[in-house]
Every structure is written in structure tokens, then in C-alpha cells.
Amino acid sequence: NIDAQFHREYTDVFKRADTLGVTIDPINTIAKADDILARITRETPQVPAGSTVKASAAGSLEDLKKFIQKTILPMRKVSETGTETFGKQSMHSMDGIVSAIDEKIASYIEKDQLLPVKYLEELRNMGLEDLRMNARGDAAKAITAEFKAIDERFSQTMTDVLQTSAAKRFGTVKPRGVK
User: Fold this and answer.
1) pLDDT at position 81, please?
2) Residue 19 burial class via C-beta count within 10 angstroms: exposed 0-12, middle 13-18, buried 19 and up
3) Residue 14 — φ and ψ, nearest 5°?
């Protein structure tokens, strides 16, 4: 089972990261969350009484705002001196945040709400960038290299599976052309 194989590999790398003290600084994720919240504030449509279309758009952006405030912003920490810092995340928890973003994207796609999807894809990319580029600890370089290798194999495997599945579904194509 492909899912079980990759789940095991990811779990193993996350456990090793924990054992070796590798953490993630979610710098890019939090910065992108702040950027998205500012854009939502600027771009949220004013909803006239009785308008359902704009109310739906405003509602989805309000929902997105709540998601970011609940899921992303708690990673921000403020020190005793009032200086903003970033709460170190385990690789596993950071991966969980990226998975939560993926689930939220799927829910908006299902409802055909594309603006929140656009914002969440930007946020997801920053989460992945933090996972790959902002790992801290003595073994961070080795752990992130292993994580990237698993990710690349997973992506290639999924591409192969989807291409094989599509090919079986469509069969062979015989070019006809003009004769």
C-alpha cells in the first residue's frame, strides 16, 4: 500500500527530527498569514442588505480569517520583553499545519470559492518552504534532505499512479489527422 509506505517514511523522519532536536521556525508561514489577513481586510466586499452573492464571498473570507487566526497565528510567540519570536514547531506539527491547509483548500474547492483557495495555496507554499528551509538544529540539514527526498519520491509516485490510471481509463489514442 503506497499510502502506508509513505506514512511510515514520513513518521520515521519526524521521529528522528524530534530525537535529534530539529525544529522548524515558521517565519514564512506567519509572514504570509499576516499578509493574507491584511489583504482580506482590504479586499473584503461590503455586503449590501439582501445581497447573497457578496455575502457568500465575504463569508468565505471571514471563515478563512478565522482559520488563519486559529491555526497559524498561535505559532507566533511574544517574549517576556515584548519581542516577537516564532514558536519552534516540530516537523510533525508543521506538517500537520500544512495538511490542515490542504483540507481547508479542498473544502473551498468543493464550494467553488476560488479566492480563499488562492490565499491558502500561498500559505501552504510558505509552510512547505519553512519545512524545507527553516529547520534548526545540528541535524537539520540531513533531516530536511531526507524529508525532501521522501517528498520527491511521493510526488513522482503519485504522478506515476495518476498517469497510469488515466492511461487505463482512456486506453490508447489513435491519431487520425487529415488524409
Assistant:
1) 75
2) exposed
3) -65, -40
- Minimal CA–CA distance to 115: which of 66, 58, 168? 58
Q: Are 110 and 33 in contact (CB under 8 A)?
A: no
pLDDT tens across 11-56, in order? 999 999 999 999 999 999 999 999 999 999 887 766 566 655 555 5
Give the Cα-Cα-Cα angle 96, 94, 19 (nearest 5 degrees): 105
pLDDT score recorded for residue 170: 57
Question: CB–CB of 136/24 below 8 Å?
Answer: yes
Q: Residues 6 or more apart from 61 whose CB is under 8 A from it?
A: 40, 43, 44, 115, 116
The runs of H, that is alpha helices, within the chain are 2-20, 27-43, 52-71, 91-110, 114-133, 140-170
Average pLDDT over the chain, rounded to whole? 86
Q: What is the pTM of this model?
A: 0.80
Do residues 129 and 28 lie in contact, with contact meaning Cβ atoms separated by under 8 Å?
yes
What span, in angstroms and rounded, lies between the C-alpha atoms of 111 and 123? 19
